[in-house]
Amino acid sequence: MGSTLYINAINRALHEEMARDNEVVAIGLDIGRQGGLFGVTRGLFERFGPSRVMDTPISEAGYMGAAIGMAMEGVRPVVEIQFADFVTVAFDQIVTVAAKMHYMTGGGKNVPIVVRLPYGVNVSGEGYMTGAGPHHSQSPEAWFCHCPGLKVVMPSSPADALGLLKAAIRDNDPVIYFEQKGLYYTLSGEVPEDGEDHIVPIGKAAVRREGTDATIVATGAMVGLSLAVAEKLAGEGVSVEVVDPRTLVPLDRETLVASVRKTGRVVVTHEASQTGGFGAEVAAVLADDAYASLRAPVKRVAARDMPVPAGLAARAALPGEARIEKAVRAVLGK
Amino acid sequence: MPLDHEQLVAMYRALSGTRIAEQTITDLNKSGVLRGHHSGLGHEAVGVAVGMAVRPDDCVQMSHRSGMMLSHARGGYSLREAVLSQFGRAPSHYASLPGRPRTLTIVGLVGTWVPMSVGISMADRLRGKDTVTVTFFGDGAANEGAVHEAMNLAGARRLPMVFLIENNGMAVSMPTSEATAASDFAARAAGYGMPGVLVDGHDPVALHEVAEEAVARARRGQGPTLIEAKLIRWESHANGIADLRTPEEIEEAHRRDGVRQLRDALIGQGILSEADADAIDDAARAEVDAAVEEGRTAGFDMTVPPPMDAADAWRLTYAN
Ligand SMILES: Cc1ncc(C[n+]2csc(CCOP(=O)(O)OP(=O)(O)O)c2C)c(N)n1
User: Fold this and answer.
1) Which of A186, A284, B76, B238 gives a 20 to 30 Å CA spacing to A160?
2) Is A279 helix (H, G, I), strand (E, B) or coil?
3) CB-ligand 1 contact for B108 (6 Å cutoff)
4) Are residues A214 and A84 in the same domain?
């Protein structure tokens, strides 16, 4: 075990998978000589060359479609969309072409692409990217959760960033990989030693902290905030469990339900806006599968339904520790 | 290379056969036996000519107009199968099956399908193949942003590709002349750094020459070509949709019919006798009629939903 930055874990996964399998290629804007706008693809171009590390013109639909075509021939492209927000331009290719190909061809063709989406803002307020404005800050995971045929993962730690990307690259379906760009340089964590083939299976949630009084279901950057809230409340004798789904589709319902059977009280939190968000799905799943265990209505703590403001004002729109704590107290009736 | 006599006769056989099959399928749809068809009448020449210009290992992404004709001309897809597929009794020409020439599927959104063909070409290059990828789309699709991105990407990477616009002058009810101020789509090629070639989409011999050169150029490593085949479709956009064109416009399509033109030319040059040509037509008609009989007696009824096991269908959503 050693400690590494979130961004370095993603970079390591790309290096390891490209070295392991010649079919793995990377494609996107400025990912070659530049090493990626944020530095995620550093060193790939020098190591694997321009035929496998492909810089493209600013044509999100064009290169997404091209990646899908390559994938249909058995290549395993990892597509970087520079900011998750820009995926709108390529949305049609993902939803219309990639997500439905296996079904439409009767299982004859599959599309093993990974779409890497740097999303969100730096909720810590430290460093850079504290609200890059409405077009560079969104957390659009719900758009993809609503599209059968796609898998959606959202790692919240360096170890998961490493293990989930490696699993996504080896998966035979299109996987949308949400990487929280505010965590790139602000979050470090333990990862297995170099050379260890660390895989986090798609579809498996993680219990980040065990507790008995209430459950917080948190994704991405909300996991760290939720752990801080749990720590604070522990000082008051309140025992909070924090569950990180890690994979949004397919969702590990068992782990969520098991937690709620134990605590009976739930807060769901994500960085994306509230209406139609992933939290609504979690609340609905728990109403279906754990209704008898629920002792209070499920509370959501999400971003306000508005464009993400630029700069520090983003913090007024986004969920933070204070709102998460308030919601936990509310479900506990305190 | 100009087509020799044998190839010209083969071309006529494919044109006549697919015309008869397409006319029959169109009529079955008009009479309500089948429901839902984008008739390819008038598009036979472009399908057959390009089909004869590519190798089985080249990848062709076919359109909803000329795909059947192209598949038939490439071989491995009989008129009988073309008809039976309409009755749900045989795989369609879109299906990728072992032993058939290589194809790439399209999707239900026009224009959206074009970028993936660029990816096929990129994958072939990664593997060091000397194959060419050809992608078909219509004048309507040509105005989609994804098509521009795809052609630009192919130009920038000098990919061995051929983009083929079947400009039938209409996108449902939108005349090409109102959809763009440019008179020719072929001129757009200059913006992508590739040659743009305009060709009469009814003339199978001219189409073949242009397609063969574009394919050869791509295979030589000289990059992509944009071909615009101007033609007129015979029927409305799809059956059940009103045709807003004047009778004169449709008459013009019949006057320029490439199938009849080739027939007349082959007879005029003494390559075929009238009786030879009739025999070719009759054989095709017999095959098509027998297939219709086979399809109908199979008890096919468009008004009855096919049995579908939802649990099985669900399994196809994901590969693993
Ligand atoms: C993105 C998209 N918009 C609209 C449609 C509906 N539609 C189907 S075919 C068609 C016309 C297409 O015109 P063109 O590309 O010229 O091909 P044609 O059918 O004329 O051969 C339209 C509007 C569609 N399938 N996809």
Assistant:
1) A284
2) helix
3) yes
4) no
Residue A320 within any structural domain of the chain: yes
Please give the distance, rounded to the nearest whole angstrom, from the Cα atom of residue B249 to the centre of ligand 1.
20
Q: Please tell me whether residue B251 adopts helix, strand or coil conformation.
A: helix
- Say which of B109, B153, B319 has its CB closest to residue A63: B153
- pLDDT > 90: percent of chain A: 92
Whole-angstrom Cα distance, residue B208 to residue B203? 9
* Domain boundary, last residue among A140, A166, A191: A191
pTM of the model: 0.95
Give the CATH number of domain B5-297: 3.40.50.970
For residue A195, the SS3 value is coil
Q: Does the beta-carbon distance from B117 to A69 stay under 8 Å?
A: yes
From ligand 1's centre to the CA of A174, what distance in Å?
27
pLDDT band at A129 (very low <50, low <70, confident <90, very high): low
Tell me the residue ranges of DSSP E strands in chain A.
2-5, 24-28, 53-55, 76-80, 114-119, 151-153, 175-180, 188-191, 206-209, 214-218, 240-244, 247-249, 266-273, 299-303
Residue range A41-65, pLDDT digits in tens: 999 999 999 999 999 999 999 999 9
Same domain, A89 and A120: yes
ipTM of the complex: 0.93
Listed as ranges, residues in chain B with pLDDT below 50 are none
Q: DSSP for A101-146?
A: HHHHTTTS-----EEEEEES--TT--SS-S-B-TTS----HHHHHT
- Contact list, B104 vs chain A (CB under 8 Å): 69, 72
Nearest to A200 by CA among A249, A237, A161: A161
Nearest protein Cα to ligand 1, atom 8: B110
Does the CB of A151 have a partner CB in chain B at under 8 Å?
A: yes
Select the residue of A54, A57, A101 nearest B152 (Cβ to Cβ). A57
Q: Is the residue at A9 inside a domain?
A: yes
Binding-site residues on chain B for chain A (CB distance < 8 A): 95-96, 104-105, 107-109, 112-124, 126-127, 145-146, 149-150, 152-153, 156, 313, 316-320
Domain CATH number, residue A124: 3.40.50.970
Q: From residue A93, give the alpha-carbon distance in Å to each of A55, A185, B136.
A: 19, 31, 18
What is the distance between the alpha carbons of residues B228 and A44, in angstroms, rounded to a whole number?
A: 40
Examine the pLDDT at A166 and tell me if it is beyond 80.
yes
Q: Whose CA is nearest to atom 7 of ligand 1?
A: B110
- The shortest CB-CB distance from B320 to any of A75, A108, A171 is to A171
* Same-domain pairing of A187 and A246: no
Instruction: Give residue A84's pLDDT band: very low, low, confident or very high (50, 70, 90).
Output: very high
Annotated catalytic residue A135: no
A309-324 pLDDT per residue, tens: 988 888 889 999 999 9
Examine residue A29 and state whether it is found in any structural domain, yes or no: yes
pLDDT of residue A312: 83
Listed residues A133, A157, A191: the one ending a domain: A191
- pLDDT beyond 60 at A128: no
B110 Cα: distance to centroid of ligand 1 (angstroms): 5
When pLDDT is cut at 50, 70 and 90, the band that residue A104 belongs to is very high
B161 lines ligand 1 (CB under 6 A): no
- What residue has token string 């593997």? B127
With respect to residue A199, please indicate whether it lies within any of the assigned structural domains. Answer: no
Q: According to the model, what pLDDT value does residue B270 have?
A: 97
A125 confidence band (pLDDT: 50, 70, 90): low
Atom in ligand 1 nearest the alpha carbon of residue B108:
25
Please work out, in degrees rounded to the nearest 5, the angle formed at the alpha carbon of residue A224 by the alpha carbons of A173 and A144.
Answer: 25
* CA distance to partner chain A, nearest, from residue B263 (Å): 38
